Fold this sequence. Notes:
The chain contains 6 helices and 9 strands. It is an alpha+beta fold. The protein has a 7-stranded mixed beta sheet. A two-stranded parallel ribbon has the order 7-8. Strand 4 (156-166) and strand 5 (169-176) form a beta hairpin. The longest helix has 34 residues, at 33-66. The radius of gyration is 28 Å and the shape is globular.
Amino acid sequence: MNKTILFFATIVAFSALSFSFIKKPALQISNDTKTESPTTAKVVNAFAHDHAMEVENMSSAVYDKLKLNKKGLSKNVMNTAVKGYLTLKENSQLKNTDLLTIVDFSQSSRKKRFYLLDMEKGELVENTFVAHAKNSGIDMAREFSNVIGSEKTSLGFYVTKGTYTGKHGLSLRLSGLEKGFNDNAEARAIVVHGAEYVNAGRVQSSYMGRSQGCPALPRENNLQVINLIKDGAAFFVYYPAKNYLQNSKLLNS
Length: 253
């Protein structure tokens, strides 16, 4: 009797062991690249969709709350800025993740086209005038360059760095993050600084004063703004240039 029980127990154990070996090839097949590629594609598409929804939700929430349309900023510019800002934030390229600066050079130089936003609190911290470069245009900026000595404005996303005191007083260094568009910013000494030629008194003239490439601010605003956005905040210079919008890796990643 005991021998019979032992025989059947051995058969059962052997069958279970064989079954465990039979399952392994199925696991290996499930890891095959061809089998998983449709799933991978779905995950990528889902991530892109989620990112797009996050951009739209954040952009709309801040834009609508602050009524930025009445401040001259279009929803399209806001969406573009938030898209790049979130990418930088997700890639841990920002130390100051609360603030986003938008310089909208699709507007006249006589408009308050500089927007400093607190994205966490949903506040418009500053809205003021800002100069574009003298070789980019007169009242409207239309030409842009990353070339040293061009004295033109450079488009794209920057991250703010430290400050120094130079010929324009307190100034803020900018590091261009987009190769081919603004990565020569530091070599060109493109910085945020105050300037006498940018002020409300010039609104009635044909154009605001222009710089050699720097986004210069009114003297009454520059110190506060520089001290708020220094050391790792997102800074975006916009113009609807097809070459930039289609080829910016930050906007098309």
